[in-house]
Each structure stands twice: as C-alpha cells, then as structure tokens.
From TrEMBL:
Residues 6-65 form the HTH tetR-type domain. It holds the Pfam family TetR_N. The lineage of its organism: Bacteria, Bacillati, Actinomycetota, Actinomycetes, Kitasatosporales. It comes from Streptomyces roseirectus. InterPro entries: Homeodomain-like_sf, HTH-type_TetR-like_transc_reg, HTH_TetR, Tet_transcr_reg_TetR-rel_C_sf, TetR_SbtR-like_C. GO terms for molecular function: DNA-binding transcription factor activity; transcription cis-regulatory region binding. PANTHER family: HTH-TYPE TRANSCRIPTIONAL REGULATOR BETI, HTH-TYPE TRANSCRIPTIONAL REGULATOR RUTR. Residues 28-47 bind DNA. Keywords: DNA-binding, Transcription, Transcription regulation. This is TetR/AcrR family transcriptional regulator.
C-alpha cells in the first residue's frame, strides 16, 4: 500500500471509531469519510464494505467493554448481584455507546470478527444466567434468548430517549429485574423463542430485515 493510502486508511479508522461510538454501526459512511477528510470513493477503495470497516475498528472497543462487563459479573461472589451488574452495565453501555448494542444484535453478518465477538458474548451471558439460576435467585425459565431480547428492546429505548430522557432505560430495567427474581416467577403463557425465531424477531426489531 502506498504511503498516502496508508495515511488515508489510518484517518478513516480513527474517524470510523469516533462516528460509530457516537451513532452506532449503521452510521452514514459519508460522515466517516467527511471527518477523515477523504472522498466517499476512497473509503470504498480502501475497505470495500461497511462490514470490513466495522471489523477494523469496532471489535476492539466494543468487544473489550462487553468482555470486561462479563468478567466482573462472574467475579461477583453473589450470583444475583453479578447478574444485575451485568444487565445494568450492558444496558448503560447501550445508552452511552450505541455501537455496543449493535455488536450484540448480530445485524452485520458480513463482519466475521464482529460476529465472533457476538457469539462469544452470548455464550458468556449464558454462563451468567446459569450461575444465577443455580443459586436459586433467577427464575429458572429465563433463557439466553430472553436476555438478548431484553437487550434489543433496551437498545431501542436508549436510542429513542437519548438527549430527551437519557436515563429512561433504567426504569424499564428495574421493573424487568423485579420480575426476574425467582420468588416473583409465575408460569409463562408461551415458551421461549428458539434460536432461529430469536434471530428473525430481533432482526426485525432493529430493522435488519
């Protein structure tokens, strides 16, 4: 790669990280090119697709934050406290860094590294759920898909209320947590979504299909 192309690529990476963190992973590519001071065509010539650019910059800052939240949750001596910490931390990240919510949604299947982070995050979330259920504090019928659906809904609320009522998501989460305690559980009217159903429903929820 020529020296000028390397410089442009580095400027685009920096601009993409900034814009994605502000607006989410579906932010306009033209805005990224504008902040980098290069043409829209230069962006495509250097990276080809949105997914390639996402893999270049988003995995590091978003994946790292999610991994840190999971590690701290699992380190809690009290399993319920760890579960609550994880939900509160991820929901707050969704409210303050839209790209985090996009990482968990699986909306960009062409971004291979991003999808690997998404899968790892879901597996770790399942461990946090199982730990709280084994301790008897989390209702036994709560699934990983239920958690991802909760996160998907929270991401929409956080995005819609940003700038108007930035803490609105906290009320919804607190109500959800009260309903997730084992002692509050009542039989649910329908079964949990399958993995395939969850993928389709969440994709529609976030506008991916």
């Amino acid at each position: 790669m020529r020296a000028d192309a390397r410089r442009n690529a580095e400027k685009l990476r920096a601009a993409a990280a900034e814009v994605f963190r502000e607006q989410g992973l579906d932010a306009p590519l033209k805005e990224i090119a504008r902040r980098a001071g290069v043409s829209h065509g230069t962006l495509y010539n250097l990276f080809g697709t949105r997914e390639a650019l996402i893999d270049e910059v988003a995995v590091g800052f978003a994946g790292g934050r999610l991994e840190e939240a999971a590690e701290q949750a699992l380190a809690h001596e009290d399993a319920w406290a760890g579960f609550v910490f994880y939900l509160e931390t991820v929901c707050e990240l969704q409210a303050t860094e839209p790209a985090v919510g996009d990482v968990m949604s699986g909306r960009f299947p062409g971004a291979a590294r991003l999808m690997a982070v998404c899968a790892h995050t879901q597996d770790t979330a399942a461990r946090i759920i199982a730990r709280a259920q084994e301790a008897g504090s989390l209702r036994s019928d709560f699934t990983r898909e239920d958690l991802l659906f909760l996160f998907g809904s929270n991401a929409l609320v956080a995005r819609a209320s940003r700038g108007t009522a930035p803490d609105a998501w906290r009320r919804g989460l607190a109500l959800s947590l009260d309903g997730l305690r084992a002692e509050a559980a009542h039989p649910l009217p329908v079964s949990a979504l399958s993995e395939e159903q969850h993928r389709v429903v969440l994709g529609r929820l976030v506008g991916a299909v």
